[in-house]
Amino acid sequence: MQTHVNAGWSKIPSWLTWYIDYGTEGLSGPERRQRRTLKTLSAFIPMSGLSYASLYLTVDPAGLWPVALAVSLFCLFVIWPMIAARDELTAWLFGAALAVGVQALLVWLLGPGSGLHLYFLGIPAIAIVCFGTRRIGLLIGLAAICAVALTLSETMLTGPAAFISVDEWLLRFLQVSAFIVVTGFVTFGVYVGFLHADRAERALEVEYARSEDLLYSLLPREIAGRLKAEPHATIADSLPDVAIVFADIAEFTPLAAQLDPQQVVGLLNTVFTKFDALADSHQMEKIKTIGDAYMVAAGMPNSVVDPAHRAAAMALDMLEVAQAADIPLPEGFEIRVGLHVGPVVAGVIGNRKLFYDVWGETVNTASRMESYSAPGRILLTPAARAMLGDDFTFEPRGEIEVKGIGILETWWLVGRA
């Protein structure tokens, strides 16, 4: 859209674009549009006055007063944008007084038969188009003045001023042109106003949808809904049965040293995007990534009947991703995985860069399982092994000394039964 606008704008003569853009420096959005509209009208209105004056000369070649009036108006309207560039309120009052005064003068000179009093209908609309809706008090006052002027013109005046000689056909022409111009201008003004409102509303809808998608990508849908309903509420849940899976890339530091930054980020993005898809397919909740580590959970924010089974199935699929031939992974690429099941506390902390996090001994134990695991293998705790039962196959690893926990019997998860 912007390209098309600029292309059309480039076809306008440079002197006219300079005039229209004068005084718009530093303005943007509606203010810039309104100022450009003011510049355009400040040129169009006196030019139409000159055309009417020229037409009058064809009827009365000796009557030079319309030409003198039109030239005077041209000078006044040209300086209108210059005033607006320095003080908008002064320009508002100047333009309103100029429009009402000139229109009243013309109606008095040519009488209501010319239809020129109908232009009083367009003056408030011009004020809105050129200056917006911010000054509602002034707009109401201007509309009231125009309504009074229109009423007096229709009821008090009977014809042109005594010293004016105007043919009937010219009055009819002016009347018809007034009907057309006022109708067209009001229609155009309403159309432009609703056009910009529709565009703004559609843009807001698009941005709202984008912000919703971003929010739901950062937080579970249920948690996001709770935060939207109660923005200042503390989100803290105690969940009794959650399966936590930790995975990280084996020997990632020396591997990353062999790659440039773009390759490192590309590698992590490729692998973790695959893991995200697995989390969705297994209906698990991605918690976060920390460097080359990936954390995902089953049974949160809502409890499920089989958290350990979902976690085990995803862990096995994660190993398959790391070994897949269709993914461009470096030679020797492998991941370590750890899995544990138990109670956790989950919630949202702070009010910036929000994310749904989880804490507790279950999380620490799952992290330890990943640390004590081996490349290409999944290490389980007794709790996870008991919940999986005979639905998967295992290899005993035996007892190991786990930092912060002590002696722990562990198993390797081998596959599905």
From TrEMBL:
Q: What is this protein called?
A: Guanylate cyclase domain-containing protein
Which InterPro entries does the UniProt entry name for this protein? A/G_cyclase (IPR001054), A/G_cyclase_CS (IPR018297), Cyclic_nucleotide_synthase (IPR050401), MASE7 (IPR048432), Nucleotide_cyclase (IPR029787)
Q: Which GO terms describe its biological process?
A: intracellular signal transduction; receptor guanylyl cyclase signaling pathway
User: Which one Pfam family would you cite for this protein?
Assistant: Guanylate_cyc
Tell me the first and last residues of the signal peptide: none
Q: Which PANTHER family match?
A: GUANYLATE CYCLASE, GUANYLYL CYCLASE
Q: Name one GO molecular function term.
A: adenylate cyclase activity
UniProt keywords (A-Z) are: Lyase, Membrane, Nucleotide-binding, Transmembrane, Transmembrane helix
Localization, per the record, is: Membrane
Q: Where does the chain cross the membrane?
A: 41-59, 65-84, 91-110, 116-132, 139-163, 169-194
Guanylate cyclase domain: residues covered? 243-370
What GO CC annotations are associated with the protein? plasma membrane
The answer to keyword ATP-binding applying to this record is no
What is the top-level taxon of the source organism?
A: Bacteria
Q: What family does the Swiss-Prot or TrEMBL record give for this protein?
A: Belongs to the adenylyl cyclase class-4/guanylyl cyclase family.
